[in-house]
Amino acid sequence: MWLGRGSRGIAGYPCGVSHAGPGAPRTSWGRAAVLVLGIPLGLVALAFAFALWVPSSGPTEAATVDATPVSDVTPAVPSTTPDPTTAPPDEPADEPTAEPAATPTGPDSQSPSSATGRSGRSDANRANPALDVVWRVETDDPVFFITVDDNLRDQAVADAALQIVRENQIPITAFLTTNYVGDDGDYFNEVTSFGGSIQNHTVTHPFLNSAGSDPYFEICTAQERLAAQFGDTPWMMRPPYGEPYFSGADPSAVEAASANCGVNRIVMWSAVVDNGKVSYNPGTTLQPGDIVLFHFWDPKFAEGLQMILDIGKANGLSPAPLEDYL
Ligand SMILES: [Zn+2]
Question: Does residue 228 belong to any structural domain of this protein?
């Protein structure tokens, strides 16, 4: 159902290591009673034996109480201090839930017209829970997919785009960078409310394979924050700048962090709309299964949306929920 650069099963890192306390050493003191009866050395022997007996018998059981904590669980998420200016006030202490609440899926659930919406997993996803890197969807359905990244910059632009989304009931998959969501949560809720969903685009938008980047913090913490703010735990992640996939650097750390944080689709793209222009890779026009990248901050976001709808219409294609195909 998708075209990836190889399907990778990720062994990943252990989510938690439980250290049981050492077994309590137990000492048996079946020391025989001291028998000293009526001889001149009896009192001396009794005192000597008593001196040996007293300190070794009384406290033995009490001393074997295991003081080791019941469990010493290593969290999957590194204990990086979140930015207090951006962290939601009610950030949950719990691990992110890898599996969102089950969405009823009927026989039509994979139909392009049946929008799962808001992060429900499709049957295709449930059938293949292993991590995959997706550049475009391999499908014969007359559909393409609209994804929008990052954050708002201009409210008038955002409003004009929302108007087009609303009029055309476009299922938008929004990849949000949590440090920049700010007060725009309502906007992102509404713009994804037509069969779309909110997904992971990290906390700070770094190059995930750069020396100073911590993929666990970037991916896992974004999972927690998006779940806390929007009520759905993402399962797609778009790496900022498409890295390390464009450069060909080793993606193992990014993929291990993704898999351990509940992400099983790393979503790239096969077409870009930027500043009123569209480019395709591969191909020269919109094709079934193309994943189109937009940015919320593009000053021509609204014009670009209308343009891709028109191109899709000319090619017999309609935007569909990406969730239903991954
Ligand atoms: Zn981005």
Answer: yes
